[in-house]
Design brief:
Keywords: Signal. It contains seven helices and 37 strands. The protein has 479 residues and is mainly beta. The protein folds into three domains: 138 residues, Sandwich (Immunoglobulin-like), CATH 2.60.40.1240; 159 residues, Immunoglobulin-like (Sandwich); 119 residues, Immunoglobulin-like (Sandwich), CATH 2.60.40.
Length: 479
């Protein structure tokens, strides 16, 4: 066979666990040459892995610049894997613990991951036009039952040194199918190399490194902004209890054992923020980063991706903060975990930023008006003849002990003079994405509201509708 990968990973036979019933067995697979996947385009492959209930085999692979009518993310290609999954449920689980013969395979999209170079985690791509795609969730009803189909993952188009497909079942040991063997990575060593690490009972997260760029992945930062690029990695610490026999054939049938689980940072798209000068919170640009919106921290790897933020180029203090909502899952307490804070650059906040014109004592989310003034132009907007643009600068804080998603544009209704809300902004200026996360414990967030008035006025009158108050507010306009 001419195919490099096929020659290098000739089949070693059935997974050892199939014959012995062992908890799990590593089947060595080596593919010489770290650039094999960047040179070859596809072919046969013999790679497999198993736990006590399931046997997975990858029989073919292909690298494609397009699949099912879809292009991969920039800087990536599609890795298409032909997967077979077989039920190998052992007799001792059926007779000793009354396990059913059928095995449920939960969502491959949520529980199956591709680990690249031991440090980047990719989830399965969902493509409506992929007629050969393996079903995302399914049941293998009897011993020997098998299902086959394709799995598609994005992979970097260069620099691949190792690849492994991993599936984390809720009841059995994690299942790893090594696709390309590179230098062995030890999660603990990578973790120790991190610049900063924070942890709670569910996950540990670390900043491996960060930098500022005027251009990133071929994209210039918006005017007045700069890209903050953070290599963020983590590891799951969540464990669930399982029957020890389900992981180890030699275990006591009455014993329980801790089963490490993947810990997903839920709502991570809005909760991971670059906090600038203590009061401005920015969320990621998902299209330019490799860190998924809701990162999945694997329990057996120190891995993550690049988090990319557009922040003001004149930022002084820069802090990466991971906020936490209430997690809901079996075995997880509903406590609100403290935020994880990574100080990237020290800075100070000027006194002008805390001055105020008015205070709306809305409990538990009071609003402070800091400034407002008439403008001829702001961002991409320009006042036409007979019109005036007015910018209102304000902040909202949260005096409760629980953070939450908030909106501000629907709280202010302009009553006089005639006009309309044009847009809401953050410092930069960049458009404010609503709803936004308002942290607990009096950590304010600044925002700006831009209005277009039909005529010049001396003051503005608003109707404010909040949580605990509804009131009229008249503000003198700074000409």
């Amino acid at each position: 066979m001419k195919n490099t990968i096929k020659q290098a990973v000739a089949s070693l036979g059935l997974c050892l666990g199939l014959l012995t019933g062992a908890a799990s067995a590593e089947v060595p697979r080596t593919i010489p040459g770290p650039q094999a996947l960047t040179v070859e385009r596809g072919g046969a492959l013999a790679a497999e892995g198993c736990n006590r209930a399931l046997h997975m085999r990858i029989t073919d692979w292909a690298l494609r610049d397009e699949h099912a009518g879809e292009a991969p993310p920039p800087g990536h290609r599609w890795l298409v894997l032909s997967l077979e999954v077989e039920n190998i449920m052992p007799a001792d689980l059926i007779f000793d613990l009354d396990y059913p013969e059928e095995v449920l395979i939960g969502s491959l999209e949520r529980q199956g991951y591709l680990l690249v170079n031991g440090e980047r985690v990719y989830r399965r791509a969902r493509m409506s036009g992929d007629s050969d795609a393996i079903i995302d969730s399914f049941v293998l009803g009897r011993i020997g039952a098998m299902i086959s189909g394709s799995l598609v993952y994005p992979v970097p188009d260069a620099g691949i040194e190792s690849l492994s497909l991993r599936y984390y079942h809720d009841d059995y040991a994690a299942l790893e199918v090594p696709l390309m063997a590179g230098e062995s990575r030890k999660p603990e060593a990578d973790r120790e190399a991190a610049q900063q690490v924070e942890a709670n009972d569910l996950m540990e997260v670390g900043v491996q490194g960060f930098d500022l760029h005027e251009r990133w992945e071929g994209h210039a930062a918006p005017p007045g902004m700069i890209w903050l690029v953070v290599d963020l990695r983590g590891r799951g610490k969540w464990v669930a209890m399982a029957d020890a026999l389900a992981l180890d054939r030699d275990a006591d049938p009455s014993a329980d054992i801790e089963l490490p689980r993947v810990m997903e940072y839920v709502e991570g798209r809005g909760l991971l923020q670059a906090v600038i000068d203590t009061t401005h919170g920015y969320v990621r640009d998902s299209e330019l980063g490799s860190l998924p919106d809701n990162p999945a921290w694997l329990p057996d790897a120190w891995a993550g991706g690049m988090a990319v933020f557009a922040i003001p180029e004149d930022a002084e203090g820069i802090e990466l903060v991971a906020y936490f909502p209430e997690f809901r899952a079996t075995g997880i307490t509903p406590d609100i975990r403290p935020s994880m804070r990574f100080r990237l650059r020290d800075g100070t906040t000027s006194a002008a930023s805390v001055e105020s014109l008015a205070l709306i004592e809305d409990e538990p989310t009071p609003v402070t008006i800091h400034a407002l003034g008439a403008l001829d132009a702001f961002s991409e907007y320009r006042a036409e003849e007979g019109e005036t643009l007015v910018l209102v600068e304000a902040s909202m804080t949260n005096l409760s002990g629980t953070g939450g998603m908030m909106t501000v544009t629907d709280r202010f209704r302009l009553r006089a003079p005639q006009g309309e809300l044009v847009a809401a902004y953050q410092r930069g200026p960049v458009e404010l994405v609503e709803p936004f996360w308002l942290p607990a414990d009096d950590e304010p967030r600044h925002f700006m509201l831009l209005y277009r008035l039909d005529a010049l006025a001396d003051d503005l009158e608003f109707e404010y509708g909040g949580v605990s108050v509804n009131e009229s507010l008249r503000l003198a306009l700074d000409q």
